[in-house]
Amino acid sequence: MTLGSQVPRTPHVQPFAAARSKLIPITLALVGSLTVVAGTYYFSRADATPSADKVAANPVPPPAAVAQASPEQMPELTPQQTPQKQVALAQPAASATPPLPAATATTVVPSKPAPAQPAPSGVQPPATMPAPAAGAANLATARALLTSDPVGARLALTQLIDSRQLNAADERAALQAIREVNERLFFSPTVAPGDIVTKAYTVQSGDTLAKIARRSGVQADWRVIQRINGLKSEKSLRVGQTIKIPVTAFHAEVSKSSYLMRVYAGEGPTRVMVAAFPVGLGEFDSTPTGVFMVRPKSKLINPEWKNPRTGEQFAADDPKNPIGERWIGLLGVEAHNQGFKGIGIHGTVEPDSIGRQASMGCVRMGDRDVEMIYELLTEPNSTILIAP
Q1: Which of 90, 105, 254, 314 makes the best surface tag, with the fewest CB within 10 Å?
Q2: pTM
Q3: Mean pLDDT of the chain, nearest integer
Q4: How many Å apart are CA 359 and CA 362, to the nearest integer?
């Protein structure tokens, strides 16, 4: 006999165990599916395209809105620089100080510049930019002629200076050499063989310096004949005496950048420099440029002068007269300088103003220098070029 407590409860236990065995894999499958779905959703958000409202809140400028620089403006970037700094250099912000030149403002110097590359074999410097050594060599060649051929040396020195081949020091040396050679060729009674600037003249009965200049067609003031012959006065002339007279017109060129006036005899490729003088110019760069001639009937010795700004009058013999002892009026002959009036070349009672911008637009010179210019420049023979 079997007790009731010993009877197995299979009718009740079997359905639950079967159900549990089926639920476990289903549950695990559901958990795994949910895990995959959640992970996919989570990780997909990082690469998702922003919605329209987020794009509007964080706009990306289109390519056309980014500042562009031409190849000439693009600075060279060092490894530490970024494109944003490059754009800032191409378009610098406004400043109260004057902007630097473009090449200075936009160029970034590399911290370790690359070494310069040698020029290809056989390549020579451009003809328009001669090497400094060429100018120095030509200067040495010209100076070597000073003793044996002073006329040729003066022409060579003139052409060398006019060619702009010399550096500042060599140009000063060339100008000094021209001064020295002209002490013999021009500012002395000797007529050098082959000189095209002067010639010999034999004094005749009844001659005066003014008559000699007029009869011989001298294109300069008669006083220059007295100067170059070392005559104390016309009373020194003697019949039959041989003196030297100039046979060409004289012209001047003023360089505003160097405050220098150069005086030439003749024109064209054969012209030669006979003198050079320092000058003062108009304040605030007011001296006009271009080609001028001597204004007719304007040359004055010991002139009176009235200050056009203050109306103050200075008598001829007033030691305070600002324009000194000589006045040469200038007449512009180009379209842009014909309207200038009251512009001239004159002396000064302020020698310290030579080499500076201090006048009302005129060209100032030392008293002894302007006396010589007064004798050399005449109307209508001479031209005066004022260059920047």
Answers
A1: 105
A2: 0.66
A3: 77
A4: 6
